[in-house]
Amino acid sequence: MSDVLRQIILHSVGSFGGTLGYAFLLNAPVSTVLPASLTGLLGYVLYEVMVNLLGQGAVFSYFAATVVIAVLCEIEARLMRMPSTIFLLTALVPLVPGYTFYCAMLALVENNGDAAGAFGLEAVQIVAAIAVGAAVTSVLFRAMMVLRKKA
């Protein structure tokens, strides 16, 4: 097994565990914990595959993974008759760029302005990609529901 594949599997297990733990921290309904955790796992695996195996850029990979997660969360919400934010808040946890923010803060403490700026800009771009991906998907789903009710 290649090192990249081993890394993806290890990170995926960690993302599932983190998502599961965060769902319990949010006190999410028990019936939503497993679907949201599996959605977070799937989104993170998609991100890892796009970056490490397909060679896509990080920001685009975060955006694409967020769109997939948001679509799955909207579908789960409709099937379980619950708000999609219950699923979305939990499932997006693995994509939060905590390490990138940490690197930016560390570079600031070490008085390395160039590295701090680079890491900070990357983190802001990632957060923006996640926000836009979730917002666009939510707006499109709501528009589809309105059009569906009119028909």
Give a written overview of the molecule.
By secondary structure, the protein is mostly helical. Helix content is 85%, strand content 0%. The protein has 6 helices and no strands. It has helices spanning 3-25, 30-53, 58-80, 84-91, 98-109, 113-150. It is globular and about 60 Å long. It starts with a helix and ends with a helix.
Question: Cα-atom Rg, whole angstroms?
Answer: 17 Å
What is the H-and-E element order?
HHHHHH
Q: Quote the distance from N terminus to C terminus.
A: 52 Å
Q: What structural class do the secondary elements suggest?
A: mainly alpha
Q: Provide the helix percentage.
A: over 70%
| Largest sheet data | none
**Hey, roughly how much beta strand do the residues contain?**
under 5%
Count of distinct strands: 0
> Which term fits the overall shape?
globular
Q: What's the overall average pLDDT, rounded?
A: 92
Query: Any low-confidence stretches, pLDDT <50, length ≥5?
Result: none
So how many helices?
6
Q: What would you say about this model in short?
A:
By secondary structure, the chain is mostly helical. The protein has helices spanning 3-25, 30-53, 58-80, 84-91, 98-109, 113-150. It is globular.
SSE inventory with pairings:
Blueprint: H1 3-25, H2 30-53, H3 58-80, H4 84-91, H5 98-109, H6 113-150
What brief labels describe this structure?
151 residues, mainly alpha, 6 helices, globular
